[in-house]
Amino acid sequence: MEGVAMKLPSFKSLAPNAISFAVGHRSFTRVRRSFSLSVCSVASSSATIAADSEPVSLGRRARKDFRILHQEVNGSKLVYLDSAATSQKPAAVLDALQNYYEFYNSNVHRGIHYLSAKATDEFELARKKVARFINASDSREIVFTRNATEAINLVAYSWGLSNLKPGDEVILTVAEHHSCIVPWQIVSQKTGAVLKFVTLNEDEVPDMDMLREMLSQKTKLVAVHHVSNVLASSLPIEDIVVWAHDVGAKVLVDACQSVPHMVVDVQKLNADFLVASSHKMCGPTGIGFLYGKSDLLHEMPPFLGGGEMISDVFLDHSTYAEPPSRFEAGTPAIGEAIALGAACDYLSGIGMPKIHEYEVELSKYLYEKLSSLPDVRIYGPRPSESVCRAALCSFNVEGLHPTDLATFLDQQHGVAIRSGHHCAQPLHRYLGVNASARASLYFYNTKEEVDSFIVALADTVSFFNSFK
Amino acid sequence: MNTTSSISSLKAVASPPLFISTFRPTVKSLRNPKFPSRFSPKRIRCMQDSNINLNFGSKSNPNPSSSHEFSVSFATVSSLEAEEALLTTTTTTSSADKLRLLVTEFRSLTEPIDRVKRLLNYATVLAPLDDSARVPANRVTGCTTQVWLEIKKDELGRMRFKADSDSEISKGFCSCLIWILDGAKPEEVMGVRSEDLSEMNVGVHGKAQSRVNTWHNVLMSMQKRTLPFFDGDDDDVAHREEDRRLVQHRQEHDLLFNYVNGRRRSYMESSDYSVSLLPLDYDFTI
Ligand SMILES: Cc1ncc(COP(=O)(O)O)c(C=O)c1O
């Protein structure tokens, strides 16, 4: 981590306080722009740029691929800090989608005609791209779903219903997203299996000692997040897998917040199942995936019935297709899957290590700036040499409702953050709050945007306090 | 536009007594921060807000030099007078009138910040809710903030609402809705359409049916819990109601009422959450 920080351009000396130099910067931008990027004209007005000797940040370079970021909302330049909810999509992804519908839209695995063959090839190529992206050994281990939620439900209904018995235990953490709690509640009600929840330790991260102690022969599954969408902490999945496998339990990893931001290698993690959503990783909505180890997928019964998932249908029974088709009943989101493939290409083109490196830097910057404001409580671990937070901060400002903050930030400053429980109500209850505000970054964000956010937040707080 | 005349004729009602009696124009409350233009390096400066105009349903004007006479005259209305005015006129001022006034008022606030300020000001005049009313059964679900709503029917057969929220903006919404509907007959409560509120939106863009829309959720909850008091016979309302628009939408209302009434039992039995599944959620107009 240390080395990373050294390599990256430091803006600290240039931007100790965005307020003091914004004007000077703007004029400087114009000079620089002529030879740096072919940024569209709207973008240029917002750009503030590092000194000539400093390399342009990844965020700055990436922004040209995201037209959506170059706009004004409510009269202010948009600062999009809600990528943990959904990411923006680069031109390459939009082109892939457009291309599919414009030139080879056709159903897959069915027709023998040219377009269908082309669509099938591209669809299956997308599966390979996803497999490569998370280093699965075989693309047949990738099942396309609508999103991560559906992928978790698939495992819950298919694997869970056929493998869990009364008294069996499923271990979760209190920090799970609702999509990794509710399916297990449903399945536990149906099977009599028991859900056990790991709570947080004093560093406000899920307590791994507690998890280890909970594991027993009764444990059949550990279903946990990789990176928390609220706490910004990450779990030691490799270790958890070893511990769980020791007692014969399987592990499902909710990788929604990790796959978009860092190298995720399913073989290295050795997890049994892993899920993610396309829309959080620069891909379109309506598509997500389940990674499952081949042998497990082979043993699992179908989740939904219909076309595509069978090999022979008789009136009284059917024989099921092999995975992944077995789990992909009906016409899939073809164009969306192909565009997800394009998103994998796009991210790989930049390089996931590079994205992660940059986000680590952004994350530190965000935490540092946000924690410097008075009366701000940030949830999750403090960053340190050993603790590396994801590039997001869930927080509350003393005496102010996060929704009021978010409303004002949007209306008055064009800053988009999320407010609410972020689909993690049990966690919020555990933290003793009903809601929090969350600013979440991606590689297309910049330190200047963090500065803008901080200025806007300070302003927002003083606005509301003036009414008290 | 004849809104001005309608406002003037209703000006005495447009100001709830509560506000006049509880509002303290302290220096602090008037010193709203003026916002730095976008990314300007300027520090927040506090300036007097010429826009403060704490009269429910009054049309404000960002330009004080051309402000409407009624907003001035209001400030001078004593709380007693206002209260009397309110008491004597509530019988003749329908919720629809109040709603229109409020919509006009919010529409006149073209700057989003002014709408927020207005809501926050209205939040300050919201009558307090007893702690005993802050129970789960009174929670309005579907909002990103916590909202409690207490509903009663008084001896005159009018609906009485009280509300509170942990969010100031939501409190402002509640304050406005209560001003519109507190003391209204059940059929009047049922007659307000969610779309009518969209003009007043603060913080939620586009359609009114967003699941984070507090206006919408609180109104739905008011209507859902008023339903048991409502006998479904709103004919006299339509006759008394001169509003052409309302008459225009009557058919649509009837459809909704039929739907609601047709499913009355299961609807009432289900949790508050089901409110968001009602077709009231959707704008079917093309
Ligand atoms: C950690 C985590 N898990 C699961 C999900 C659910 O993703 P989706 O709604 O795309 O299924 C999210 C998205 O908010 C998330 O952040």
UniProtKB/TrEMBL annotation, chain A:
Keywords, ordered alphabetically: Pyridoxal phosphate, Transferase
Gene3D superfamilies tied to this protein: Aspartate Aminotransferase, domain 1, Type I PLP-dependent aspartate aminotransferase-like (Major domain)
GO biological process: cysteine metabolic process
Record GO terms (molecular function): cysteine desulfurase activity; pyridoxal phosphate binding
Listed EC numbers: 2.8.1.7
Catalytic reaction equation(s): (sulfur carrier)-H + L-cysteine = (sulfur carrier)-SH + L-alanine
Database matches in InterPro entries: Aminotrans_V_dom (IPR000192), Cys_dSase_SufS (IPR010970), PyrdxlP-dep_Trfase (IPR015424), PyrdxlP-dep_Trfase_major (IPR015421), PyrdxlP-dep_Trfase_small (IPR015422)
Cofactor dependence: pyridoxal 5'-phosphate
All residue ranges annotated as the Aminotransferase class V domain in the record: 79-453
PANTHER family named among the record's database cross-references: CYSTEINE DESULFURASE (PTHR43586), CYSTEINE DESULFURASE 1, CHLOROPLASTIC (PTHR43586:SF8)
Name of the molecule in the record: cysteine desulfurase
Originating organism: Eutrema salsugineum (Saltwater cress)
TrEMBL record, chain B:
Keywords from the UniProt entry: Chloroplast, Plastid
Domain Fe-S metabolism associated positions: 104-224
Source organism superkingdom: Eukaryota
Compartments (UniProt record): Plastid, Chloroplast
GO molecular function: enzyme activator activity
InterPro entries reported for this sequence: Fe-S_metab-assoc_dom
Cited SUPFAM superfamilies: SufE/NifU (SSF82649)
Gene Ontology biological-process entries: iron-sulfur cluster assembly; positive regulation of sulfur metabolic process
Pfam families: SufE
GO CC field: chloroplast
Similarity comment: Belongs to the SufE family.
Name the record gives this protein: Fe-S metabolism associated domain-containing protein
UniProt organism field: Eutrema salsugineum (Saltwater cress)
